[in-house]
Specification:
Structural class: alpha+beta
Largest sheet: 6 strands, antiparallel
Distance between the termini: 50 Å
Number of helices: 11
Number of strands: 11
Order of helices and strands: HEEEHEEEEHHHHEEEEHHHHH
Radius of gyration: 20 Å
Oligomer: single chain
Helix content: 40-55%
Strand content: 5-15%
Bound molecules: 2-acetamido-2-deoxy-1-O-phosphono-alpha-D-glucopyranose, magnesium ion
Length: 366
């Protein structure tokens, strides 16, 4: 989308300020984001990927309700709702999004100044602060009426159905890539039983369904430039009923990886246990009292399960010919899958150490 088009789309939103600059922004794999700088204020303009979110109107209904709920909670606690939650800017006729016939579905949020997201944890204390912020986020949503939320992507963290999707993709082999990924495929097949662990616990009623974020990678939190606190949780498209194990696990998947999510040098990829400890401490400090025994018991497994799930999704997309995640180079999804599987293997090897860390903070905070 060129700047002129972006400007024309932005002009449909109720912003009375002169646009000075508009440019692509951020590193998400799904939506397209632009930073809009006006004379006196800043905004993010986002195109919602409607191949992934096939009901963008429902996504926006969820987000509007969630952000209003959060803003009320933040105000009541004496916080600043203009910085501590995303705020939706409505269109000039009061809509929560703008639909352009050619370019698709757009929304605008106020931009949180003086804070940024990081592609990698730079200081362990930031990761501890992120854990506290994700925990607080979940606490603030604990009385949100879950049944009123649309399920924006059905079975999003259903690891068993993600496993079955991988099998289907391997069978149909649409892009003719299967022969070159047999080792990666086998890695997933060998872990079939693991895929059902969280799901079974939910079905058995041992792990409660809560309103969760479901995409808690470290670049979906803004860290305040001055205080280093996790000031605002972003990327709210997948806030839906889920398990805290998904959020905790996905944070570990991305944040504890000493390498990059798509690292081509697998020697770089391993789980940094210091970061694991920081996150676990922060999370249990805030949420410990709310959790069931089974949730805590499964915490040492959550990172590897969600990392396995994400690796299977990348491998599925590679087999399907890269139709879901944005790629920046050939075999990008394969590189991502390989890095995730390397991380899974490392997390498996360190599971006892993780359990000891979870138990240490369980004693203190639960
Ligand atoms: C996508 O949009 P982004 O980049 O924050 C994906 C997540 C994956 C993540 C992997 C809606 O998140 O589920 O874990 O990529 N979001 C969706 O980096 O599929
Ligand atoms: Mg994101």
């Amino acid at each position: 989308m060129n700047t002129e088009k972006a400007l024309a789309i932005f002009s449909n939103f109720a912003v009375e300020d002169e646009v000075v600059d508009i440019r692509p922004f951020g590193g998400g794999h799904i939506n397209d984001t632009y930073l809009v700088t006006c004379a006196n204020s800043k905004y993010t303009l986002q195109r919602i990927n409607d191949a992934v979110f096939t009901r963008p109107v429902q996504v926006m209904e969820n987000i509007l309700r969630i952000t209003r709920h959060l803003a009320a909670k933040i105000s009541a606690a004496g916080g600043d709702p203009t910085r501590e939650t995303l705020n939706v800017i409505l269109t000039r006729d009061g809509g929560n999004h703008y639909h352009d016939e050619d370019a698709g579905y757009f929304r605008v949020f106020t931009f949180v100044d003086g804070a940024r997201s990081y592609p990698k944890v730079e200081q362990p204390v930031h990761f501890y602060n992120a854990a506290r912020a994700f925990g607080k986020f979940q606490n603030m949503l604990s009385d949100f009426p879950a049944a009123e939320l649309h399920e924006t992507i059905p079975n999003f963290h259903n690891t068993v159905s993600r496993y079955n999707d991988l099998l289907k993709a391997a069978e149909s082999d649409t892009a003719g890539r299967r022969a070159s990924v047999e080792a990666e495929l086998q890695f997933a097949l060998d872990r079939k039983d693991k895929c059902a662990l969280i799901l079974n616990a939910i079905e058995a009623g041992e792990v409660p369904v809560r309103v969760t974020h479901n995409d808690t990678k470290y670049d979906n939190i803004l860290i305040d430039d001055e205080s280093g606190e996790g000031i605002c949780i972003i990327d709210l498209d997948t806030v839906m009923p889920g398990s805290m194990l998904y959020d905790y696990g996905d944070s570990l998947r991305f944040g504890t990886n000493a390498g990059a999510e798509d690292d081509q040098n697998l020697d770089n990829v391993y789980c940094d246990l210091e970061l694991f400890e920081q996150f676990t401490k922060g999370y249990l400090e805030v949420l410990g009292k709310e959790l069931t025994d089974r949730e805590i018991e499964l915490m040492p497994m959550a990172g590897q399960i969600i990392t396995l799930e994400c690796g299977m999704r990348f491998l599925t997309d590679h087999l399907n010919g890269d139709t879901y995640f944005r790629i920046h180079r050939p075999d990008h999804n394969l590189d991502r899958a390989r890095a995730q599987f390397k991380l899974v293997a490392d997390m498996e090897a360190r599971c006892d150490e993780m359990m000891a860390i979870v138990n240490k903070y369980k004693e203190i905070y639960c």
